[in-house]
Design brief:
CATH architecture of the largest domain: 3-Layer(aba) Sandwich
Distance between the termini: 50 Å
CATH topology of the largest domain: Rossmann fold
CATH superfamily of the largest domain: NAD(P)-binding Rossmann-like Domain
Helix content: 40-55%
Number of helices: 17
Structural class: alpha/beta
Order of helices and strands: EHEHEEEEHHEHEEEEHEHHHHHHHHHHH
Shape: globular
Radius of gyration: 19 Å
Largest sheet: 8 strands, mixed
Number of strands: 12
Length: 335
């Protein structure tokens, strides 16, 4: 199949390399040093799914103009870059099915506004991957990709694309992509505190004070979701009903969830995607992660002060480039 991957970072780069290894014709978009490295040496994959160098077509925008549209495309840019990336590639994409594989909320709505004629699928990457060197992706936790149908996507389209993906990596299919997105949003709460402190996800969760803050932000998120009538989907083997209990349970009970996530990451330090952006000097997608909780809370008429404080601290680190110590974070976040 001809597959376009828009955004060859940690998630997009991993998917592009795996699909290339599975024998598909893949083109990726990238920028700057990443684009130069991929053009010169290929897209290099290592870690949990083995080693592979993908000699893929790479350009700032898709170059298949004038050719038939791709069989399907994957959007894997940072959430804040999604609209501009889709507009830049709209001519090539046509009405090809689009898999939106991004962190946070709102990606499917953005895709629908830019590509109203394309069948949409939601993709949630449970695998952990790092893109700390141009042209190289390291998989630190080889977990599945969750896929679900969204606007305009029939069961036939979902199954056709799922079958292609299944030949490249483990996947799970969900019937409730919105519920799954909220569960992934909860999982992505592991990203903010590493970005604030410069520590790995494992180190943050091992710190009792930081773990308590993370758990409190998760509990607050569950309460917001409950107010909005959201039902958490089953993701990474965790039942959504159990996650719902975090909203009413003491923090000591809720801490089982961060500990579970840490145990599944293994021993290779996982920086998290938000810290990776900080280290590259890029703006993070925190406004689409913890910030999405703050926005949803306002819509629901409920407060989300813990997530709001965390978002402010990430933006502070973006501006200053200076990480905070564990003690400083604990002192500044009011629970």
């Amino acid at each position: 199949m001809r597959i376009a991957v828009i955004g060859a970072g940690a998630v997009g780069g991993t998917l592009a390399a795996l699909l290339d290894r599975a024998g598909h014709d893949v083109e990726v978009t990238a920028r700057g040093e990443s684009l130069v490295a991929i053009k010169a040496d290929g897209l290099r994959l290592d870690g949990g799914w083995g080693e592979h160098t993908a000699r893929v077509e790479a350009h700032e925008s898709l170059a298949w103009i004038g050719a038939p549209a791709p069989d399907f495309a994957i959007l894997a840019t940072k959430a804040q870059d999604a609209a501009a990336a889709l507009r830049a590639n709209r001519e090539v994409l046509g009405t090809a099915p689009l898999l939106v594989a991004q962190n946070g909320l709102g990606g499917l709505e953005v895709a629908r506004s830019v590509l109203p004629g394309s069948p949409l699928l939601g993709g949630l990457a449970l695998f952990a991957a790092s893109y700390l060197e141009p042209g190289r992706v390291t998989v630190t936790a080889p977990l599945p990709l969750i896929v679900g149908a969204a606007a305009g996507a029939s069961d036939e389209v979902l199954e056709r694309i799922a079958e292609v993906l299944r030949g490249a990596l483990p996947i799970e299919i969900t019937k409730d992509i919105v519920g799954a997105q909220w569960t992934k949003l909860l999982i992505n709460h592991v990203n903010a505190l590493p970005a604030i402190t410069g520590l790995s996800v494992q180190e943050v969760i091992a710190d009792p004070g930081l773990r308590t803050i993370m758990t409190a932000s998760m509990r607050e998120t569950v309460r917001v979701a409950r107010r909005l009538g959201i039902h958490f989907g089953k993701v990474q083997g965790v039942n959504g009903r159990i996650l719902g209990a975090i909203g009413s349970a003491p923090l000591a009970f809720g801490a089982w969830f961060p500990r579970t996530l840490r145990s599944r990451m293994g021993t290779v330090p996982n920086p998290g995607s938000t810290l990776q952006s900080i280290k590259r000097g890029q703006l993070t997608e925190i406004d689409f992660l913890n910030g999405a909780v703050v926005a949803a809370a306002k819509d629901g008429g409920v407060p989300a002060p813990i997530n709001e404080q965390i978002v402010d601290l990430v933006h502070e680190v973006e501006r200053t480039g200076a990480f905070l110590t564990s003690a400083e974070v604990i002192a500044r976040v009011t629970l």
